[in-house]
Q: What sequence folds into this?
C-alpha cells in the first residue's frame, strides 16, 4: 500500500515547495482568537491565530512544528483562506476535509482547493491524514471562537 | 419426551440449525474422562469460541501484528485498521450512535469499576448522595459501588428481589429519588436468569437526574441490544461470554458524558500532551484506554459479533428462550429439585439455578461432571442474591447458542443419577 | 561491510542462530507494497509472536476453554491449571520467590496505575510526601504519578538525564530523601535505550524507607531478570513486548507488601465474601485481579516465556547487545544523523532514536516504510525526554531476537535514500 | 480425569458416613479462640472454636455450611485432634495437608490419619482440595491464636 510510486504521490513537488517555503508562517497581531492544537499520536503542534474583519478572514498566522505534510498544509491553508469570506473559507475546509477522509475515492476540485489538490495522495495514508488536517482543525476551532467573541461583543 | 414441538417457542426454533452451529465449536466434540461426551452447560460463566474467532486471532498475530495508533508503517496501519474495525463492529452490534462511544476494557468488571472510579473522581457522587443497585447483582456490579460509596461517604441502596426472583420495583419511587446520583442494574441476572424491565428503571432515574449504568454482561450475548433506544447512560459487557476472547470487555457510554469525565488510568495512548508540569488527555474512547490496548482481542471480538450477526441475534434469543423453556419444564419434573428464580420462560435468560434436597451443590456438580455434564456450583458471584433466598450456594445450568435439548436431557438424567448416588447408598 | 566479526560482540553472537529463530515468526516472511520484504525494526513498540505462542492460544481456545477458579468441572480444571501454569512460568522466568507475587493486569500501564492507585488509597502517599520519577520515563510511568500526586497533594520530583542520555544521579541524595515515599523508575528507556543502574537507586530509596517501582517493560524482554536479588518492591512489564500476546501485563510485588494493600478494582474473583453491608477481599494475587482474568493470554504468555527460556535470556541479551552495537556503528556513519541517547553499546538496550538533519521524523519513517523498513517516528510516549533534548520527535529503530545485521544494513540504505529524496529534488 | 470410578474414590463410604453423622458438630463453650473461614470460590463457610487445656486440644467445636467433603472433613478433624497434644495435632494436620496437596502421589499413613485416609481420592480433584482443607486451616488459625493468647497471659 505504500510503495515508491505512492510515496511520490504523497510527497508531491508542490507539497515539498510549501514545506521549504511556508506562506504566512509566524504569529502576528491583531487577532481575535488563538488556539493550540496537538496531534497526540506524533506530537506535531500548531499555534494558530485568526483575525476576522467583519465576515472576512483577514489573517491566519501560525507557528507550526511538524512534518512536511503538516507544515505544507498550514501554508496552503493560509493561501486558501486569507482574504476570503468566512463562509467560503469554511466551504474550502469542508472540501479539504472530505478529500483527506475520502480514502482516495474523492475527486478534488482544483477551483476550490488550488494547491490543496496536491494533498490527494495523503488520503491513502491513514496515519498522515491527521498531519494534513492539524492546522485546518485549528483554523476551524479558532474561527468559531472568534465568531462567538464577535457575537458577544 | 415432553418439550420438542410442544411449546410456543418451538416455531421460532425450527429455523435455527443448532447442529450446524455446533460444528463451528471443535471443543464440543471432546469426550471427557470415562468416555463421556462433553455436555457444556456453563455458558453464563464463559462461552466457547467458534473456529472463526480463533482463526481471526491467529491470522492477526501471524500476519498483521503491530502496535496501533502510534505506528506509521504498513503493518502498523494494518493492525490499527484491524483493531479499530473491531470497535466499529461492536458499535454496530449494539447500535451505538458513534463508534467513539465504545471503550475497550479488559472485562466487564473493569468497565464497571471505570465508571464508578471516574464518577467519584469527577465529583458526580459525593457525601450524602445515593447510589442504587439491586440484590441480584453480580459482585462486579456491587463491590465497585461499595468501594465508591465508602470512599465518598455516599450511601448504597438496594432494589429488592421478589420471591419469584423478579426485581421488586414497588418502592422504585422512594428508592430512586433526588438524592440518587447513579442507578446501576443488571439487565439479565447471571444467577436467577431474570430479564429486568430496565426501561422502567431508566425512566425513573432520568426523571430525578440520576445516571444509569446497565450491566449487560449476560444480556448482550443473548438478546438483541440497541443502546440508541435503550436510554441508558452506560452499558458494560464482556467478550468471553459472547463467543469472543478473554482479555476484552466493553464500556459503552454516551459520547458527551464520556467526554465530560476525567481519565481512569494514565499512560500511553490516553494523553493529548504530557509535560513535567501536567498532562492533558485525549478525547474518548482513547482517554479511557491507557497503554497498549487489547489489539488481537478486538480482532477476535469483531469476529465474534460477525458470527452472532450472521446467526442473527433474534434467532440466538429465540433459541435461548426455547431451550430455557424446555429445561425449566424438564428440571421441574425432578422431585426435590427447586428452581431459584423465575420458573417460567417469560422475561428470562438462559441460566437456571437450582437446589436439590439433601445434596450440596458441589456434590451435585461433581457427580454431573463424572458424567461429562459441566455446570457451575457455588454462589456464582452473587452472594447477596443467594442470601436473599436463604441458600448458601446453588447449582447452575446455563445455555447458549450451541445447546441442544439432548444436552438438557443428559442433565436431567445425571441429576437423577446424583440423587440415587447420594440417596441410595 | 563493517561489523560482522569485527566487534567484541561477534563472539557471543556466534552461537545464536538468528535465521533459525526467524523461521518461528511467519510474519517476517511477508513482503509489503512494492515487493519489499518486511524489515521490522519496531520491536520496542511491540514484538512479533512465534508460531509456538499463537498455537498455544489456539489450542487453549479450541480444546480447553472454560472460566477459571469458579468452575469445578473437568474443562474448568484444565483451564484453571493452564491459567495458573502461566503464572507459575512467569514467576519462574523473573525469579519470583512466590508465584502468588505475580499479578496479571491488562498491560504494563495498568500495572503501574494499580500501584499508584492503591498506594494512594492505602495512605502510603499523602499531602506533603514526595514521589520521584525520571525525565526518561514512558508516559505510563509518568501520568499515574501525576494523577496520584494531584489527588493527594504530594509532590512529584524528577531525576534528570545527562547530555549523553544517562540517568543523572548527581543529586540522588538530595532528590531521594526522608520525604520520598515512592521512587518509580524505568529499567531500560524505550526512547534513549539507556539501561539504568537501578540497584543504586533502590539502595538509596530503601535507606530512606521509600518503596521502589521498576518499569521493566523494556528490560524483561531483553535482559535476564531476577527479582529475588533485584531488591525492588514492584516490577511492571507487559506481555506483547516479550513475544507474548496483547491483553496481558504483569505486576510483580513483594508478597507481604501486596498482602498489606487494599484492592484496586472490585468484582468477581477478588473477594473473600460479599454482603450487602461490606465485602472482604481475597489474598494476593487474586485481590488485584477483579473479574475474569486474561486466561488465554496467560497461556500465551507462558508459551512466550518458555520460548525465551529455550533460547536462553543470556543469548537473547547478547544478540540484542551485538545487533545494537552494530547498528550504532553503522548509523553513525551517516552524515547528518544524530543519535539521541548513549552512542556506545554499553549499558544499552536495543532501541536507537535519532534525528536526521532537515528531514522530519515522520517523513523519515514514511520513506523508510516505502522500502519495507518499519520504524517508529514521534515522541514514543516519552515527551519529557524529547523536551530534554530539545526535539519534538525522533525516529526510532528497535531490535529484538529476530533482528539481523542485514536488516540494519537495509535501514541504513533506506536512510540514505531518504536523505537523497528530500535533499535531491 | 473424573469418571465414575474416580468419583467413587472421592465419595468413599466413610466420607458419606461422616457427612450424614458429623462428629462434634456445633459450637461449644469454653474456647480460647474462634475463627470464621470462607472458601471464596464456592462460598463454603466454617466457624470454628478451639479450647486448649495446657498443651492439649481439649475441644474443637464448629458450625460448617458446605459440601459433603468439607463437612466430613470437619468431622474427621474433630475425631483426630480432640484430646491430642497440640504438637501431635499439628503433625496430623501436616500429614493431611500433604495428602491433599500431593496430587494423588502421596501414600497416606493410616496410623496417623485413620478415617482421614478416605480423603486420598480428593487429591485428584484440585477444585475440591480447598473443601477438604477448609476446617483444617480454620483449626490451624484458631489454635495459633489460642497459643498466642496463652503466651500473652
Ligand atoms: C518503558 C515502557 N513503559 C511502559 C510501557 C507501556 O506498556 P503497555 O503499553 O503495554 O502498557 C511501554 C511500552 O509502550 C514502555 O516502553
Ligand atoms: C451479570 C454479570 N456481570 C458482570 C460479570 C463480570 O464479567 P467479567 O468476569 O468478564 O468481568 C459477569 C460474569 O462473570 C456477569 O455474569
A:
Amino acid at each position: 500500500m505504500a510503495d515508491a510510486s505512492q510515496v511520490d504521490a504523497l510527497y508531491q513537488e508542490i507539497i515539498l515547495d510549501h514545506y521549504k517555503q511556508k506562506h504566512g508562517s509566524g504569529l502576528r497581531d491583531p487577532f481575535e482568537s488563538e488556539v493550540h492544537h496537538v496531534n497526540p499520536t506524533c506530537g506535531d503542534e500548531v499555534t494558530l491565530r485568526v483575525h476576522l474583519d467583519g465576515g472576512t478572514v483577514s489573517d491566519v498566522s501560525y507557528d507550526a512544528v511538524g512534518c512536511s505534510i503538516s507544515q505544507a498544509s498550514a501554508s496552503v491553508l493560509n493561501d486558501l483562506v486569507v482574504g476570503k469570506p468566512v463562509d467560503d473559507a469554511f466551504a474550502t475546509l469542508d472540501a479539504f476535509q472530505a478529500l483527506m477522509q475520502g480514502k482516495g475515492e474523492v475527486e478534488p476540485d482544483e477551483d476550490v482547493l488550488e494547491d490543496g489538490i496536491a494533498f490527494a495522495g495523503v488520503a491513502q495514508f491513514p496515519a498522515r491524514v491527521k498531519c494534513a488536517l492539524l492546522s485546518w482543525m485549528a483554523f476551524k476551532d479558532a474561527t468559531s471562537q472568534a465568531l462567538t467573541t464577535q457575537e458577544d461583543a | 419426551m415432553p418439550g420438542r414441538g410442544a411449546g410456543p417457542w418451538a416455531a421460532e426454533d425450527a429455523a435455527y440449525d443448532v447442529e450446524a452451529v455446533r460444528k463451528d465449536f471443535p471443543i464440543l466434540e471432546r469426550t471427557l474422562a470415562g468416555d463421556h461426551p462433553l455436555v457444556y452447560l456453563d455458558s453464563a460463566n464463559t462461552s466457547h469460541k467458534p473456529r472463526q474467532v480463533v482463526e481471526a486471532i491467529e491470522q492477526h498475530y501471524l500476519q498483521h501484528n503491530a502496535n496501533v495508533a502510534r505506528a506509521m508503517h504498513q503493518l502498523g496501519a494494518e493492525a490499527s485498521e484491524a483493531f479499530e474495525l473491531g470497535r466499529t463492529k461492536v458499535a454496530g452490534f449494539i447500535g451505538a450512535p458513534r463508534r467513539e462511544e465504545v471503550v475497550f476494557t479488559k472485562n466487564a468488571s473493569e468497565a464497571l469499576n471505570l465508571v464508578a472510579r471516574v464518577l467519584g473522581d469527577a465529583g458526580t457522587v459525593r457525601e450524602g448522595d445515593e447510589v442504587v443497585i439491586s440484590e441480584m447483582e453480580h459482585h462486579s456490579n456491587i463491590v465497585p459501588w461499595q468501594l465508591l460509596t465508602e470512599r465518598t461517604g455516599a450511601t448504597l441502596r438496594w432494589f429488592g428481589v421478589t420471591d419469584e426472583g423478579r426485581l421488586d420495583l414497588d418502592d422504585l419511587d422512594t428508592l430512586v429519588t433526588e438524592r440518587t446520583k447513579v442507578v446501576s442494574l443488571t439487565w439479565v441476572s447471571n444467577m436467577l436468569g431474570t430479564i429486568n424491565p430496565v426501561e422502567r428503571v431508566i425512566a425513573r432515574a432520568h426523571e430525578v437526574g440520576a445516571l444509569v449504568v446497565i450491566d449487560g454482561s449476560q444480556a448482550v450475548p443473548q438478546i438483541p441490544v440497541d443502546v440508541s433506544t435503550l436510554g441508558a447512560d452506560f452499558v458494560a459487557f464482556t467478550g468471553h461470554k459472547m463467543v469472543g476472547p478473554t482479555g476484552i470487555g466493553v464500556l459503552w457510554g454516551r459520547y458527551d458524558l464520556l467526554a465530560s469525565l476525567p481519565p481512569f488510568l494514565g499512560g500511553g495512548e490516553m494523553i493529548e500532551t504530557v509535560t513535567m508540569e501536567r498532562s492533558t488527555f485525549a478525547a474518548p474512547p482513547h482517554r479511557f484506554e491507557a497503554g497498549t490496548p487489547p489489539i488481537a482481542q478486538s480482532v477476535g471480538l469483531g469476529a465474534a459479533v460477525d458470527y452472532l450477526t450472521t446467526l442473527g441475534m433474534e434467532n440466538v434469543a429465540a433459541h435461548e428462550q426455547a431451550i430455557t423453556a424446555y429445561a425449566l419444564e424438564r428440571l421441574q419434573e425432578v422431585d426435590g429439585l427447586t428452581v431459584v428464580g423465575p420458573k417460567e420462560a417469560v422475561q428470562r435468560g438462559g441460566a437456571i439455578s437450582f437446589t436439590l434436597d439433601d445434596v450440596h451443590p458441589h456434590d451435585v456438580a461433581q457427580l454431573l461432571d463424572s458424567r461429562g455434564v459441566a455446570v457451575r456450583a457455588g454462589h456464582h458471584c452473587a452472594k447477596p442474591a443467594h442470601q436473599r433466598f436463604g441458600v448458601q450456594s446453588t447449582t447452575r445450568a446455563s445455555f447458549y447458542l450451541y445447546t441442544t435439548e439432548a444436552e438438557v436431557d443428559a442433565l436431567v438424567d445425571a441429576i437423577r443419577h446424583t440423587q440415587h448416588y447420594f440417596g441410595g447408598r
